[in-house]
Amino acid sequence: MDTDTIRLENINKVYDLGEVQVNALNGVSFTCRKGEMISIMGHSGSGKSTMMNILGCLDRPSSGSYFLDGEDVASLNDNQLAVIRNRKIGFVFQSYNLLPKISAMENVQLPLIYSGVDHRKQRAMEALEAVGISKRAGHKPAEMSGGEKQRVAIARALINNPLIILADEPTGNLDTQTSHIIMTLLMDLHKKGITLVIVTHEEDIASYTERTIYLRDGQVIEDKTR
């Protein structure tokens, strides 16, 4: 049985900007096993944001293959990619991406609404309880701290029992103490068997993960296991 949740084979991404072409990714290959917790690091312009978009099925590679749970998703159309995103991927962003006019409970329920799932309130409360923020279920984002908002975002990412969680600079807007709390929470989820990929530019955040893939100029320059 294939235990690779993610497998990239010679991924290239070229952006055509008219007179020039930008090679954002150049022959990237790596795997991520089921239940693994990895980080992707690189300076600005290294290709890590492009990598995140491809891993999250938000963009397609120009060439190469991307196998997610054994399925080559690189050539799927927009509707097929949307289904994959909703069913198999949970997203956590630096800016939280919560809707400001609705409660934490309602924010967490959003992926279930798109899926047409029943018992949404019960499942949303269970997700909020899993990240220790259920007491704030009725509060709107403006009434929460950064750490609380990120917990809500993680609960939303968990709600559909995704295959993987992709976290893009999840501690970027948080102070050091709160960053530690959020990373400890993510590590606890990893210990329960969830596959986690964290994009970061901070070495201390990457140090929480078992393995770090370093990008430079669109290429993997090091794949380091701790």
Which descriptors apply to this entry?
226 residues; alpha/beta; Rossmann fold; six-stranded mixed beta sheet; four-stranded antiparallel beta sheet; 10 strands; 33% helix; 30% strand
Descriptive overview:
This protein has 226 residues and is an alpha/beta fold. It has a domain at 37-48 and 81-225: 3-Layer(aba) Sandwich (Rossmann fold). It has seven helices and ten strands. The strands form two sheets. A six-stranded mixed beta sheet has the order 6-7-8-3-9-10, sandwiched between helices. Strands 2-1-4-5 form a four-stranded antiparallel beta sheet, covered by helices on one side. The model has no long low-confidence stretch (mean pLDDT 92).
- How would you classify the helix and strand content by structural class? alpha/beta
Which regions have little confidence, pLDDT < 50, spanning 5+ residues? none
**CATH first level of the domain at 37-48 and 81-225:** Alpha Beta
Q: Write down the overall mean pLDDT.
A: 92
Strand content: 25-35%
Helix content: 25-40%
The CA-CA distance between the termini, in Å, is 26 Å
CATH homology superfamily name of the domain at 37-48 and 81-225: P-loop containing nucleotide triphosphate hydrolases
The tally of beta strands, per DSSP, is: 10
Q: Look up the CATH topology of the domain at 37-48 and 81-225.
A: Rossmann fold
Order of strands, main sheet, comes to: 6-7-8-3-9-10
Cα shape: globular
Number of helical regions? 7
Order of helices and strands: EEEHEEHEHHHEHEHEE
